[in-house]
Amino acid sequence: MASHTEFGAKTDAKDVFAAFPTAVEGKVALSPVLITGVSPKGLGAQIAQSLATQKPKLLILTGRFPSKVEAVARDISTPGLEIRIVLFDISSLASVATAVDQINAFAEPSIDLVFNNAGVMNIPERRLSADGFEYHLATNYLGLALLTNGILPKVKKSDAGRIVNVVSNGYALSPFRFSDYNFDGVDDLPQDEQPSKDAMAAFGIPFGLGYIPPVAYGQSKTAAMLYTRELADKLKGTNATALSVMPGVIDTDLWREMPAETVKAVLSSLPLKSTSQGIATMLVAALDPKLKESGGAYLEDCQVADVQPFASDKAKSEKLWQLTEKLTGTTFTV
Fold it and tell me: Which of the residues 97, 154, 239, 269 has the least number of beta carbons within 10 Å of its own beta carbon?
């Protein structure tokens, strides 16, 4: 349970900073903060700009495109704040590995906060990454896991390290498809790996077992949630933990793969948050000391929320961890 039960969908970043001054002074101001997926019209930019107002020691901003990350960095004018930019393609395992080496080479021994914000959504046609993985899975999960485990030693050296993984309630569309994670197409997809008919109906999506953009997106977010729970379990007894966060429905660049008229219709039909309200739950996950007891939890509207069993099942999280090591060719040591 979070410390402030009065927080909700309308809570914004300033409310969270005001609620946790000790955490701001002890974390943000003293140790590096790393943010992935930084671009001008995104939550990465908003979290960076908001944290900059709290006079952090160092912001590490990452992204794929130099012009986008540099534009965000230029807009931050906090005196004395050091900003470092690390450029890499999170969908590429080799690119992530290079970024891990670069970050680990920094002189600072620890990283207090990691905001894994980079992501893609609803790619219209099935696309594979350079390594041959379905693109949502590669970007929203495999790259996230490889980066996080690569820099984990620095997070564990923090007095209270937090890893905040941005997910979505769209996870409810699909369990992890161990039998067809790449959406290659199988005729006998097990029942417990099939998309949720109820969730698809609720989202207005026709049921099917093949590549459906929101289902592929949902599977990648289920994977991130299972990973977060397993990582938090393995971090028990250390100073660090990990949490999953659903920021809410926000008008950001995440919608870029969808037709403009579709995005307009969706955003006009759902409760819309400002970017400051969107990052509030991310900040609660990062700063609320009470949440150390809730490692692996899923937060929505600044509160811990229940999830579908397939997104929290221990056996599935262990199985996914092992599969992730196989797919990335890396042994994850915690």
Answer: 269
